[in-house]
Amino acid sequence: MNKKETILLVSNHTEDISRIESILGDEYDINVVSGTMEAREILERSVELISMIIIGSEIVSEARNDFMNTYNRHGWNHHIPVLLITDDIEDEILVNAFDYGIDDAIVTGINPAIIKNRISNYIFSYKQRSRLHIESVKAKEAQNAVKISQKDLRRKNQVVQILGSMYTCVLYVNVNDGRYLTMECLPHVLKVIGPEGIVCEQIIQAAKAFSEESDWDRLVSFADSSTLKDRLKKREMIDMEFEGKISGKVRATIVAADRDIDGNVVHVIYLLQSIGGEEPEDNE
Fold first, then answer.
1. Which CATH architecture does the domain made up of 5-134 adopt?
2. What's the CA gap between 221 and 243, in Å, rounded?
3. How far apart are CA 179 and CA 32, in angstroms?
């Protein structure tokens, strides 16, 4: 058995309440409250359960400045129709109600079958309207996400290009498993370390190829990914310098790229830069 749609009836007029319940009670769950404050609390708590709001004519002036403002501000107007129940089609309140944002009116003296059809049509049309609104919002969010991701990608590419122009080698390293991807690298270095691999293993090969033997142990210890969480716990970067075989002094730098919710470093960037004749300096 399908669950009934819920109509929120805001009224303290017993005759109107009885009429609505007698006409719609078989097909809908009628949730009756006597004022707009109660109605607002229900909507703020469980708006997704409400398919329609019906407001009594004796409440509509109260609803104008408080309830309808909240209704529009929260965007409920995209999902839930609001109807006025009244006895008199010529009532001045009926004329003004549309200015408040109320969609339509139910005149209690008309044929109950017409009221049922009108209620059903409004609920159906608002469901379609809500679906289209949600799809539109999602489409815009997707478009914005694409724009942002494209912008971020351009920025990352720019950063990589800048780093590549400054550094001999740039590696992106996963601290947890020690694996790396080469972001930028001079051909003679790339030939030794390869485009990806286990950083500790490849640093050993690179140390033997490009640094003096006296610096091998120090360089391998510096690049050890298993100790980086501790070494970068309270720092954003560490560096060291060593004597290179090809271009003289070289600075190795490790920069924290991102961290987990506990503050532990997850990824780092390894950088190698030829610094020529500067005096060697360690910053471990």
1. 3-Layer(aba) Sandwich (3.40)
2. 16
3. 63
